[in-house]
Amino acid sequence: MSGFGVFLAIATAFSWALGCVVHTTASRVVGIPAVMLIRQPLASVVLGIFCLVMGDLWLPSLHLFWLAAASGVFGIIIGDACQYAGALTIGLRPAQVCQSLSSCFTALFGSIYLNEYIGLQGWLGMFVATCGVILVVLSEQRDAHNPPVSSKQRNKGVIISLLAAVFVALGIVFSKQALQEGIGALPLAFYRNAISTAGIWAVGLAFGAIRPAFGNLKANPGILKLFPLGCLFGPAGGIWLSCVALDYLPAAVAAMLIGLQPIALLIITGIMERRIPAPNSIIGSIIACTGAAILLLR
């Protein structure tokens, strides 16, 4: 097990937690379509510049291109859209309870498509870590942004968030397969974002979402300052980190460590709000870290 890969996966969890806070905040003001339509082109440009500077912008084979495309479509276009829709429906933290199951879905898909062996200790570690994450999220219900919802809305939000976990897992598995077959982490991150940009804009044009989205942005120009920060921690820097982590770790291990995102969110919001986490949150964090240790030491 690569210590550097473990560090990068945990760094990805913190990066994605920050990006999720920023993009969820923006989505509440201008809507999910506007966020998706702006952040993806911005991330593609940033990653494209890095690829050019580092001489790593090469045209992959058709097979690798389709793997990167599948990763972008499942992980970014569908997965992120479901993630934000779930967060807006039932709140950011409750949605993350469902999304914490993505490591289990990744392990399942990885064993089927990548022939990755998890073993009994590996499954035990993921189960313990997931229980810890769920305890943290359930104990952190003081989020003022959690909307009041009916039972029907709550069920809808849970289903959407579970779908986000499934599609994010599929995106991770396709990314891992592309890395195993020779594409670099940086060009993979670029192609994932570039293909997602084309797909998101095509869907936006087909459903007439472009004009309303930019109308919302025009009515709320102050929200634009959030996009560079969200891009840095989300689709640009965050995805790049995740691709590098996947290059060093099995898909299931990387997904589980990245799935510690609620723990990262707990630390970040604790610092931002200058408050001590609830006792159950601290216990849940210890349980989650224990589960991660069981998985890593198998």
UniProtKB/TrEMBL annotation:
EamA domain residues: 4-137, 156-296
Highest taxon in the source lineage: Bacteria
Keyword Transmembrane helix: yes
Record-linked SUPFAM superfamilies: Multidrug resistance efflux transporter EmrE
Transmembrane is among the record's keywords: yes
Signal sequence segment: none
Record key words, sorted: Membrane, Transmembrane, Transmembrane helix
Descriptive protein name: EamA domain-containing protein
Species name: Bilophila wadsworthia (strain 3_1_6)
